[in-house]
């Protein structure tokens, strides 16, 4: 693994000022790295690395899901990954695993709100938006020890646009940043600490099986999880329907002409 | 319908060697069909027309029997999906598949990804061996317990 750099003083100070719950593993910082998720996955593979944090100032190979690139120019966003272990939940660890990405979406929205006053919304399951533009994205990658075992640990990465330089200009109609929304400069270290602290709090909820608290917070931030037209693809062809909420495992419920469909994976497009 | 109920039904279907079975209860339709090879095909569950609630449980494991290979040491293992989700054979669109029929794999090697709730689950091989069958196409939904790969263990 590439040698880490010292954590910048402003980040160290900001992280020192907030409670971080179980996220008290080492903070590994890179001025430049391929992908924070890859570093965190390497750590996770060593075992007993729950709570480790990886932060980069620049990613040369920032990733989203399914080959999507996450544009990660120097100092323009937050590029952070943490190692989590939802299997440690006190009840129904399978439910904790299913709800992990929703939990992360809630936490990042809450951290942003705490640090800046902006009130982001969430698009199922975990995109963090302001208006209809994406502010932050999450990439969660789990490893099964073997096929029949529960997820051993999860690397949860997020990218949060702080400056408008964090994304290509041709995405400006679909993507936004903290500074574009607020019209002022933002202290990245402060936002980083606030989001990690919020994540630690919600992760505590998850491990203590306080699933209703997480689901309530998620629903309050996801207006379009109800009464919105959505489209998705199935092996039998394209489908469309109207959202009617999420169930207790976080699955999106969509009313169609044939009944209510329960969606747990794949791509759903909102009109 | 809870998981225990579903298991009871599956046991009955197996016990009586039914080739096809369908039941509708509480707005939920369950259909079980035996495929030509004698194994039970993946269970499909869909809300019946007019139902107001979606099934709140994942479907039950498909009771696939591993065909015994007689009189030598060759062992065929069927790797099944640990979760309901979307099956991906490659890391990203356009990339080569993690494995194909004929690929020799090591225990712990990544065979595929199953995505659920936007969590990308890498599924590793439990065995050293050779992939002899890939049951699911890239990008298809898979049920809990659905067959993904057959591996001839070495």
Question: Can you walk through the features of this model?
Answer:
The complex is a heterodimer of chains A (271) and B (154). By secondary structure, chain A is α+β, with helices and mostly antiparallel strands. Chain A has 2 domains: 9-220, Bira Bifunctional Protein, Domain 2 (BirA Bifunctional Protein, domain 2), CATH 3.30.930; 223-270, SH3 type barrels (Roll). Helices cover 28% and strands 29% of the residues of chain A. Chain A has 6 helices and 12 strands. Chain A has helices spanning 9-16, 36-45, 93-116, 178-182, 188-207, 211-220, and strands at residues 27-30, 53-56, 77-84, 121-123, 127-130, 133-144, 151-161, 226-234, 237-246, 252-256, 259-263, 268-270. In chain A, the strands form 2 sheets. Chain A has a 7-stranded mixed beta sheet. In chain A, strands 11-10-9-8-12 form a 5-stranded antiparallel beta sheet, with no helix packed on it. In chain A, a hairpin with a 5-residue loop joins strand 9 and strand 10. The longest helix of chain A has 24 residues, at 93-116. The model of chain A has no long low-confidence stretch (mean pLDDT 92). With 154 residues, chain B is mostly beta strands. Chain B has 2 domains: 3-58, no CATH class; 76-153, OB fold (Dihydrolipoamide Acetyltransferase, E2P). Helix content of chain B is 8%, strand content 36%. In chain B, the strands form 3 sheets. A 4-stranded antiparallel beta sheet of chain B has the order 4-11-9-6, with no helix packed on it. In chain B, strand 7 and strand 8 (119-124) form a beta hairpin. The radius of gyration of chain B is 17 Å and the shape is globular. The model of chain B is unreliable at 36-64 (pLDDT under 50).
């Amino acid at each position: 693994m590439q040698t880490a750099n010292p954590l910048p003083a402003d980040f160290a100070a900001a992280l020192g000022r907030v409670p971080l719950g179980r996220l008290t593993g080492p903070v590994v910082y890179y001025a430049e790295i391929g992908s924070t998720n890859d570093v965190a996955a390497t750590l996770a593979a060593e075992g007993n690395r729950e709570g480790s944090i990886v932060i980069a100032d620049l990613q040369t190979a920032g990733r989203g899901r399914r080959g999507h690139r996450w544009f990660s120019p120097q100092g323009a966003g937050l590029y952070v990954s943490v190692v989590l272990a939802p299997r440690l939940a006190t009840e129904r660890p399978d439910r904790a695993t299913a709800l992990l990405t929703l939990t992360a979406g809630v936490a990042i929205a809450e951290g942003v709100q705490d640090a800046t006053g902006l009130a982001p919304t969430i698009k199922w399951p975990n995109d963090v938006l302001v208006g209809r533009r994406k502010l932050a994205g999450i990439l969660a990658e789990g490893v099964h020890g073997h096929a029949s075992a529960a997820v051993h640990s999860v690397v949860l990465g997020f990218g949060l646009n702080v400056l408008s330089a964090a994304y290509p200009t041709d995405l400006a109609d679909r993507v936004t940043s903290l500074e574009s929304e607020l019209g002022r400069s933002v202290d990245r270290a402060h936002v980083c600490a606030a989001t990690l602290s919020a994540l630690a709090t919600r992760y505590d909820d998850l491990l203590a099986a306080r699933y209703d608290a997480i689901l309530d917070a998620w629903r309050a931030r996801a207006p379009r999880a109800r009464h919105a037209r959505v489209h998705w693809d199935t092996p039998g062809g394209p489908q469309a329907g109207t959202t009617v909420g999420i169930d207790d495992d976080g699955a999106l419920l969509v009313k169609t002409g044939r009944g209510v469909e329960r969606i747990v994976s794949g791509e759903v497009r909102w009109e | 319908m809870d998981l225990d109920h579903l298991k009871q039904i599956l046991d009955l279907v197996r016990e009586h060697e039914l080739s096809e079975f369908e039941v509708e209860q509480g707005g939920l339709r369950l259909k079980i069909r035996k495929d030509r090879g004698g194994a039970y095909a993946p269970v499909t569950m869909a809300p019946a027309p007019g139902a107001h609630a979606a099934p709140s449980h994942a479907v039950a494991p498909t009771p696939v029997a591993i065909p015994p290979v007689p009189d030598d040491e060759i062992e065929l293992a069927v790797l099944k999906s640990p979760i309901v989700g979307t099956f991906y054979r490659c890391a990203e669109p356009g990339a080569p598949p993690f494995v194909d029929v004929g690929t020799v794999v090591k225990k712990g090697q990544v065979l595929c990804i199953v995505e659920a709730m936007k969590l990308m689950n890498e599924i590793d091989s439990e065995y050293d061996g050779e992939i002899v069958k890939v049951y699911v196409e890239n990008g298809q939904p898979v049920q809990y317990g659905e067959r993904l790969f057959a591996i001839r263990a070495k």
